[in-house]
């Protein structure tokens, strides 16, 4: 899928918001500037977040809870994680029981990334567009076809 610009990237995030629920994991992969945070902002905005979601690069985990959004979401940025063992300290496995997880830089988790995660990879193109590829697990197949 080609996302022509930032507006298209945010629009994809908004479409995803209609299909995400508690317990879901959406992993956003790609180099710096690929549009991961733009996609996350589109999803969070469609879930009801007023204003611009900050990048969680320094906080690592940015929580959003109702009534701010329609369901609890943890926006996670693992860019500063140096070893997969550090992910355990974040308590994401427990948090997943009560929230949806939106994870940037999931490759920093190593083998800890759940096999049922929807993995979206954004790759910048020379035109300024982004190429999106998806690894769609069984639990997402029916929902992904609606996006």
UniProtKB/TrEMBL annotation:
GO terms for molecular function: ATP binding; metal ion binding; transferase activity. GO terms for cellular component: cytoplasm. Pfam families: TsaE (PF02367). InterPro entries: P-loop_NTPase, T6A_TsaE. It comes from the Bacteria. Keywords: ATP-binding, Cytoplasm, Magnesium, Metal-binding, Nucleotide-binding, Transferase, tRNA processing. SUPFAM superfamilies: P-loop containing nucleoside triphosphate hydrolases. GO terms for biological process: tRNA threonylcarbamoyladenosine modification. Gene3D superfamilies: P-loop containing nucleotide triphosphate hydrolases. It is found in: Cytoplasm. PANTHER family: TRNA THREONYLCARBAMOYLADENOSINE BIOSYNTHESIS PROTEIN TSAE (PTHR33540:SF2). NCBIfam families: T6A_YjeE. Belongs to the TsaE family. This is tRNA threonylcarbamoyladenosine biosynthesis protein TsaE.
């Amino acid at each position: 899928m080609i996302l022509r610009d930032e507006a298209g990237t945010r629009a994809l995030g908004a479409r995803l918001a209609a299909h995400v629920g508690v317990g879901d994991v959406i992993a956003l992969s790609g180099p710096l500037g690929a549009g991961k945070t733009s996609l996350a902002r589109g999803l969070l905005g469609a879930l009801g977040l007023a204003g611009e979601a900050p990048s969680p690069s320094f906080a690592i985990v940015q929580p959003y809870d109702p009534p701010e959004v329609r369901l609890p979401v943890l926006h996670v940025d693992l860019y500063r994680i140096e070893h997969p063992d550090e992910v355990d300290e974040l308590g994401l496995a427990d948090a997943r029981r009560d929230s949806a997880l939106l994870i940037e830089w999931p490759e920093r988790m190593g083998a800890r990334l759940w096999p049922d995660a929807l993995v979206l990879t954004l790759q910048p193109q020379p035109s300024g567009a982004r190429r999106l590829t998806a690894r769609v697990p069984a639990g997402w197949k029916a929902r992904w076809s609606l996006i």
